[in-house]
């Protein structure tokens, strides 16, 4: 199992959380933590997720990216170590 | 989950041009020597295409998974003169082509190591390699070359300095841009992942992964937060920022090394600018408090920057190596170009800056009619700064035919655009033509 951070940024509208979460669920991705806010009308969301080895990172990334495009938001998926590495010894 | 950290990391990549500049695979060619140059070339091609076959794919996968761009994937090899001892200047070209073909086959951006180490004198292969450079650099596309002409231990080979000045002129007559693929070193390092000077030293293992990271934009952004504060705070801020970005290099290097099954060598944190605005070392120096780079105080600001970068990097990585510090190329740095155009930054000031930066006179355009002995004298000056101060120095100077001072020369892509700079018109010929050897400085006698 690997942990990753999904970040979503874009124009707020109905269904962003639902769309992204549903796509992740379809691929067996478990959401461990999430934080969502509206900063000067921009929707921003970060999710800490656990990827099952069953589905590859690339496939999951492609699926949420596609869902992001449908919703008109930008989605990034990055493995969690990159954030830990920079901030912790 | 700390969203502040997530935002900070994403901002570094998306807005501040932070990148892993290169994953460089060092490959020893010492076991490729055959009975003839053709046989050696065949072995070289085979070894490189076997060892590095997954390098690009692994690099791209890491980029996708971690969201950090890895701008270049490169290869460095054993200095070619060492495996071509019996070749002449024509035969050795077969090896240049073997490197070029192998690099293209595996899809890397550059291959470095068409090199010779001649600080104490020339071997047969060294001379063949240097004499072949005008053809090698114009007949190949991704082969990079370096020649080491001096070291703190050996002094300066003035014959080599003279020969390199002449060689640069011959290359200029064949191509306006080929000189950007070659660098003349003093105190060259054996594990440098940056081009044009990367080669795989003889004391290195059979194969190794070295990582070069950059990020002047990230340092500038951090310094914007401490405007007006004391210089102590500036040094601390640079150190902390260098630590953070070196950690990413360490992570990427570790993963690449695991996935490729190759030992991890070093991380080289070098603030290497690109022509993009916001990715400039000059702008970092200006943020420290200079109206424009090149004015009085530039050397001091650069010394502080270079030193703080090294200090921050050292603790962040299992092994810091290469050149680590700040590069000050002219053509690749928007702020440097502006300063030259404005008349603030001169060649003399650049030379002073090289005594405290991580390398030397880099990517500087000069008029095509500059005498070979004048170019040699520039190389001699840089080598002297290097060997006396126990640091690496280098010259990558670009005489361009048919240009005059102030003209702009375009080198394309990451190599950028350089304004042609004035050179002092008094001769150094009698000095260079003496030839011989500048003895090693007294502090080299430490045994």
Automatic annotation (TrEMBL), chain A:
Stored SUPFAM superfamilies: ACT-like
UniProt domain ACT: residue ranges: 5-78
Source species, domain of life: Bacteria
Annotated InterPro entries: ACT-like_dom_sf, ACT_dom, UPF0237/GcvR_regulator, UPF0237_ACT
A Pfam family that the UniProt record links to this protein: ACT_6
HAMAP family (UniProt xref): UPF0237
Family: Belongs to the UPF0237 family.
NCBIfam families reported for this sequence: PRK00194.1
Protein name, per record: UPF0237 protein FPFC_010630
Source species: Fructobacillus pseudoficulneus
Lineage: Bacteria, Bacillati, Bacillota, Bacilli, Lactobacillales
TrEMBL record, chain B:
Pfam families in the cross-refs: DUF711
Protein name from the UniProt record: UPF0210 protein FPFC_010620
CDD domains: RNR_PFL_like_DUF711
Gene3D superfamilies noted in UniProt: 3.20.70.20
InterPro entries in the cross-refs: UPF0210
PANTHER family: UPF0210 PROTEIN MJ1665 (PTHR37560:SF1), UPF0210 PROTEIN SPR0218 (PTHR37560)
Subunit structure: Homodimer.
Family affiliation: Belongs to the UPF0210 family.
